[in-house]
Amino acid sequence: MRVSAMSGIDDDESRAIAERIEQENPGWIVIFGVFTKQFVCIPRFPAPPGTMVVAQYPDAVLPRMREVENLLRPRNEEGET
What's the number of CA atoms in the CB half-sphere (13 Å) around residue 61? Predict the structure, then answer.
């Protein structure tokens, strides 16, 4: 595995990780920015304009995605999810 100074993982591996995260989370578009060295996740579901998750490390992506999903999940009249 090749390592870059910013992310700790080389670009090719980071792109593969982004692809895997997107496949496992079809409600999201997930890309790795080779210049920013960040994972950028854009929801495919209704969300306010500009909603996205950005993380430098892949381990930070999923918890942030779940947080956005929980904040935007429609609630029924009784307040349940």
Answer: 24
DSSP 8-state class, residue 46? S
Measured between alpha carbons, how far is 47 from 67 in angstroms, rounded to an integer?
13
39: left (phi over 0), alpha (psi -120 to 50) or beta: beta
Name the pTM for this structure: 0.79
Q: How many Å apart are CA 2 and CA 11, to the nearest integer?
A: 8
Beta strands in the chain (DSSP E): 28-33, 38-43, 53-55
pLDDT in tens, 19-50: 999 999 999 999 999 999 999 999 999 999 99
Looking at residue 34, its amino acid is V
